[in-house]
Amino acid sequence: MTNWLPDLTHGTGPLYLRLADRIEKDIEAGVLAAGAKLPPQRNLAFDINVTVGTVSRAYALARERGLVAGEVGRGTYVLQHDEASPGTAAPLPPFLAGTRGPAPVPGKLRMDSTAAPEVGQTETIARLTGEIARQHPEESLDYVRAPERDWLKAGSRWLAGDGWTPDEDTVVPTLGGHAAILAVIAAMTVPGDKVVFEQLTFSSVARSANLIGRRPMAIDTDTDGADPEDFERICAQQHPKIAFLMPCLQNPTLTALPEARRRDIVAIARKYNVWLIEDGVYTALLENQPVPIAALAPERTFYIGSLSKAVAAGIRGGWAACPPHFAPRVQTAYKMLTGGKPFLLAELAARLVLSGEADDIRSRVRAEIAARETMAREAFAGLDFSSHPSAPFLWMKLPEPWLSGTFKNAAANEGVLIDDEDEFKCGRTDRTFHRARIAFSAPASRDGVAKGFAKLRALLDSGIAGYDSFG
């Protein structure tokens, strides 16, 4: 470990920012060499007479700048910054890469995507897009300065459920649910803050949070979803600022958080002053939607929804319903992170919802997903898996002796792309589930779905001995 004692008496601004700047300057000056281990946060905090939180935020900001890398239990190390050869792309750092490649392998059957299936919605989308271009030629070519009122009204209507309807003034239109979630995290936290995720989750958001300097941490889950007791333990010991939850059709486990647990989590969040993000993107597929957390704790819950699973992913129609008075803050963060939302897409999403076309498409999507889920139950009869008639994927328990990553590779060799369990982990964990997610909404036809299921069933039945990993 490097014997490094930075001097923060000079300079202006918050102490954590001065410390991060000092790390950067000392790396540039060679005081901190590549591979050097920074002092443990608690030790450095004591040595320079600041709080551990100050050091934690500084280290997180240094990591965000690409200066250091750290892992729980190993410490924080200075990264090597050699110049890359011309034309040579630097590899993605592990916290960004995930388990998928940067682009899908061509020629493979996509059973790793849960976008809404094609049910004839392209004709409606084409007609509405043409109308918008004709009626709003100037707006379609310009930047969006402020959201139109109809965009807020559409968001309020799409997000509503079980007696709860968000006020239009709390709604922020976004380019899909992912951008909405990241905007909320950016608006409500600062670098170094901790963000709670379920141990298996929409890990792309966890990696995105890491990218902007926030620190993901996992809470335990069981067959009923997030464990309130572990959530309270994390809140008491780690002091997170915000928690991200998927209470309905949880991706990838398909658990549903019972109302009693929702109320327990709300009580804990209030006790420890933790913000909540409720991902309702898959909830839109349910005919009967349970009481949202946002209805139980409107003062601290950000409810996220989009058209991606129920209408069309390519429209990038998304909304965030915010606690009172926080929409302008999230809107500003969203514009700073993404540059804003194009008029054409925002207007298209709004017209789909307000005209009722989105509901008609959703009905057809639900029917198609239900039909494909029935095919899945028939194709994988006798195996251990979780599925739901409204969900465009299943969560397969792999029979002995399959490992999750090995099965994913074997499926890819057979021309089928699926996701192993590691794709959904928000960070390193010793827990193994021996599961894989098989999605079935992306193939263009049910014949394609059937072929994919047949190949996967054959692999599962043949066992790992039938898989040659050498060629």
Automatic annotation (TrEMBL):
It comes from the Bacteria. Residues 13-81 form the HTH gntR-type domain. InterPro entries: Aminotransferase_I/II_large, HTH_trans_reg/aminotransferase, PyrdxlP-dep_Trfase, PyrdxlP-dep_Trfase_major, PyrdxlP-dep_Trfase_small, Tscrpt_reg_HTH_GntR, WH-like_DNA-bd_sf, WH_DNA-bd_sf. SUPFAM superfamilies: PLP-dependent transferases (SSF53383), Winged helix' DNA-binding domain (SSF46785). Gene3D superfamilies: Aspartate Aminotransferase, domain 1 (3.90.1150.10), Type I PLP-dependent aspartate aminotransferase-like (Major domain) (3.40.640.10), Winged helix-like DNA-binding domain superfamily/Winged helix DNA-binding domain (1.10.10.10). Pfam families: Aminotran_1_2, GntR. The keyword Transport does not apply. GO terms for molecular function: DNA binding; DNA-binding transcription factor activity; pyridoxal phosphate binding; transaminase activity. Keywords: Aminotransferase, DNA-binding, Pyridoxal phosphate, Transcription, Transcription regulation, Transferase. In the C-terminal section; belongs to the class-I pyridoxal-phosphate-dependent aminotransferase family. PANTHER family: HTH-TYPE TRANSCRIPTIONAL REGULATORY PROTEIN GABR. This is PLP-dependent aminotransferase family protein. It comes from Kaustia mangrovi.
